[in-house]
Design brief:
The structure holds two protein chains of two kinds.
Chain A: H1 4-24, H2 28-52, H3 57-87, H4 92-97, H5 101-105
Helix pairs in contact in A: 1-2, 2-3
Chain B: H1 5-24, H2 28-48, H3 52-77, H4 91-113, H5 129-136, H6 141-161, H7 165-168
The chains are: A mainly alpha, B mainly alpha.
């Protein structure tokens, strides 16, 4: 029988894969994608617990998370494009070494 | 509607393998497409949890809008293979081993709870789009308004981030 534990375990595994992606990848776009994966894992836990406790509120939280993720990815990609235009690179390690990115973009 | 163990295992295997392939793939476009597979598997899992609206929004917003945006950006910047050689070698094994520790901790907590939990509720209360919409404009009105402001701020922020043509050239 499928219990909420199965879904939470799957959610945890997906979240950890997302963490590894954020830590290991250096392409800023792939870091963003890994964050999306983590958000989705959290969503799965929300929906599973909504089903478990027989309460629809968790699904609403999942919808809010999706909306927030949409805003996050749009701003993130805009930043990536702006940084790429200034630096010709989206490598987070390279950008980390050059600390004055914000000055160059003239915020 | 609740699913049996076999479809659940198949769906989770697809989701986990797609996520691993996403993290491991060299090319950003491949990573994005693997993430689409992962999102689709999750959408089916949402359906199995009596969450048809979340599954639909997942398909429309995540797969339809967000991933297309990501793919367009990758193609626009031609940033597919910009993952350079690692400049900080020791961090990759450190990240993987820390993730393994997290996995062990998490599975300890999960498996300690196995057996004590009850199965899923027989059936979720009304989770139709109508019921969720009613809740959204009723008890969740304030978060709804806040998220609309967040989206507005995101739009304004993206416009502000757009590089100035005159300054650029």
């Amino acid at each position: 029988m499928i219990t909420v534990t199965h879904y939470v375990a799957l959610s945890g595994v997906l979240f950890i894969i997302g963490v590894v992606g954020v830590l290991v990848r250096r392409n800023a776009i792939l870091v963003l994608l890994s964050v999306e994966l983590m958000l989705n894992a959290a969503n799965l836990a929300f929906v599973a617990f909504a089903r478990h406790w027989n309460h629809v509120d968790g699904q609403l939280v999942a919808l809010f998370v999706i909306a927030a993720a949409a805003a996050e990815v749009v701003v993130g990609l805009a930043l990536v494009v702006a940084v790429f235009r200034a630096r010709r690179s989206v490598d987070v390690d390279e950008l980390d070494k050059e600390l004055s990115v914000a000055d160059e973009l003239a915020f | 509607m609740s699913i049996g163990i076999v479809p659940f295992v198949i769906l989770s295997a697809v989701a986990v393998l797609a996520a691993l392939a996403m993290v491991a793939s060299r090319h950003a476009v491949h990573a994005a497409l693997f993430l689409v597979i992962n999102f689709s598997a999750l959408a089916v899992l949402y359906l199995s949890l009596d969450a048809p609206l979340v599954a639909l929004v997942q398909a429309l917003v995540y797969i339809g809008a967000i991933m297309v945006l990501v793919l367009l950006t990758i193609l626009l910047l031609d940033a597919g293979e910009l993952d350079s050689q690692s400049t900080l070698e020791w961090q990759v094994p450190a990240a993987v081993s820390l993730a393994l520790v997290l996995l062990v901790e998490g599975s300890y907590l999960v498996f300690r709870g196995i057996g004590s939990e009850t199965g899923l509720a027989e059936k979720l209360g009304d989770s139709s789009p109508q019921a969720i919409g009613k809740l959204l404009f009723d008890s969740f009105l304030l978060p709804f308004e806040i998220i609309s402001i967040v989206l507005l701020v995101a739009i304004v922020g993206v416009v502000a981030l757009t590089p100035d043509k005159d300054k650029d050239e």
